[in-house]
Amino acid sequence: MDRPIGIFDSGVGGLTVLDSLRKQLPQENLIYIGDNLHCPYGNKTKEQLLSYTKQICQYFISKNVKMIVLACNTTSANVLNELQILFPNVPIVGVINSTVHDFLVQDKKNVLVIATHATIQSHKYKEMIEKYNQSIHVFELETPQLVPLIESGEYKKDIYSVLNDYLSVYKNDIDSLILGCTHYPIVLNQIMEVLGDKTYISSSHAISQEVYSYLKVHNQLNTCSKKALIQIYTTGDVHDFIYSSSDFFDFTNLEVKHLIL
Ligand code: DGL
To answer: Whose CA, among 21, 104, 158, 159, lies 20 to 30 Å from 215?
Structure first.
């Protein structure tokens, strides 16, 4: 039960999921990998995504994890099934299912999904929403400039004009927005400035509920009273990783280490 949970993303975006997991499951040991060496994932092919994520899963399995969380929509949309087949002995979950369910219960009619190129091209969100409710109109939009702006820390200065160019044309047509990339909650306030009063859905809350339910049902919640250990790794530069994320993620008592896979 005290085996860790492995969580990964292409970079700092999945920290939004890690943050929610550590709040909802404070007793769980967590290992996070930001694969900054290969970031962004959004413009990569399925073969590339599979090769990067296979290595990450192998690393997690060598650390005896009890579960792997794809804190990344791009890999959840494109290689989740393949990873589940390759590693049948460890439960692997992606973020899209739980995000769609979180959206559906809001009872909205016109939703815009923003995500990376690879996520939008998979049409996973649109297909899944329409499977459950055909009367919902799903707009899809690739927003490839956002991840590089967030990873570089540029978003701290100004991201308004980029967001405005992407989003303002949808303002009168939608009642809800799905942030279909785990990096995007980092700029949620700026997005809200452009779109105003809408229902905003992101992956971080829903996925930690799903992880909790899975562990509870399988009797795998960590009941050990020892303080939980959170290990954070990046395959890129440690200082850059901390610079781009320290405004939204609290690193108190945590160290970020470089990892070579
Ligand atoms: N944060 C990831 C996602 O949810 C990856 C984005 C990227 O690296 O392009 O899609």
So the answer is: 104
Residues 41-65 pLDDT 10s: 999 999 999 999 999 999 999 999 9
Best residue among 12, 140, 181 to mutate for probing ligand 1's pocket (most ligand atoms within 8 Å of CB) is 181
Convert the pLDDT of each residue in 55-103 to its tens digit.
Answer: 999 999 999 999 999 999 999 999 999 999 999 999 999 999 999 999 9
| Tokens of residue 45, six digits | 């092919």
d(CA 35, CA 260): 10
Tokens representing 60?
């997690």
Q: For a ligand 1 pocket test, name from 44, 147, 234, 245 the mutation site with the most ligand atoms within 8 angstroms of its C-beta.
A: 147
Cα–Cα distance measured from residue 66 to residue 42, given in angstroms and rounded to the nearest whole number: 27
178 contacts 110 by C-beta, under 8 angstroms: no
30-34 sheet: strands from edge to edge: 92-93, 67-70, 5-9, 30-34, 230-234, 256-258
Give the residues across from 233 on adjacent strands. 33, 257
Contact 57, 31 (CB under 8 A): no
What distance in Å separates the CA atoms of residue 9 and residue 234, rounded to the nearest whole number? Answer: 10
